[in-house]
């Protein structure tokens, strides 16, 4: 492997000079992943905004679409699928409801519960946004050859599994 010279390498070199007593090698992985995640998020959010959506709103619509017909989930289930608090979910659902992309109704199973469902306009929007989103993701991972992609996917899946635990 060749010697890397980038922003993260520069930071590591400065820390190595200032704190030679510490092993700063983890910054090579963590720092680059952090910078890559920020760059990828910027690229993904650009697509969402073209469809009038925030990242969180895209996540809600996608979670509803993935549920299959009739494209609905309970708010708590949506919060789990999108990894946000129920308060944040309420804010997202309120906005999507206001613009006619989702509806809320009482649950038929639990009279106290609510169900959030895609409207036909919401389904049409998420289908268009998701199609463009996947083209964008293909473009982004296209910088890697198939073997690199497979290897990276496996490494990341294994690492997440170890951090998440059983």
UniProtKB/TrEMBL annotation:
GO MF terms listed in the record are:
DNA binding; DNA-binding transcription factor activity
Keyword field contains Cytoplasm: no
Q: Name one Pfam family in it.
A: MarR_2
Keyword set for this entry?
DNA-binding
Q: Which domain of life is it from?
A: Bacteria
Q: Which InterPro entries match?
A: HTH_MarR-typ, MarR/SlyA-like, WH-like_DNA-bd_sf, WH_DNA-bd_sf
Q: Per the UniProt entry, what are the Gene Ontology biological process annotations, in alphabetical order?
A: response to stress
Segments forming domain HTH marR-type: 26-161
What name goes with this protein? Answer: DNA-binding transcriptional regulator, MarR family
Give the originating organism: Sanguibacter gelidistatuariae
């Amino acid at each position: 492997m060749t010697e890397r010279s980038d922003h993260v390498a520069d930071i590591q070199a400065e820390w190595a000079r200032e704190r030679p007593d510490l092993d700063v090698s983890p910054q090579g992985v963590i720092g680059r992943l952090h910078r890559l995640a920020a760059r990828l998020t910027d690229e993904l959010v650009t697509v969402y905004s073209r469809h009038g959506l925030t990242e969180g709103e895209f996540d809600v619509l996608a979670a509803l679409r993935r549920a299959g017909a009739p494209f609905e989930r309970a708010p708590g289930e949506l919060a789990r699928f999108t990894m946000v608090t129920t308060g944040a979910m309420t804010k997202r659902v309120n906005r999507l409801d206001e613009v006619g992309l989702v509806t809320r109704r009482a649950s038929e199973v639990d009279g106290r519960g609510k169900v959030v469902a895609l409207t036909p306009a919401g389904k049409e929007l998420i289908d268009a946004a998701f199609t463009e989103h996947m083209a964008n993701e293909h473009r982004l991972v296209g910088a890697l050859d198939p073997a690199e992609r497979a290897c990276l996917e496996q490494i990341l899946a294994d690492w997440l599994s170890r951090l998440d635990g059983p």
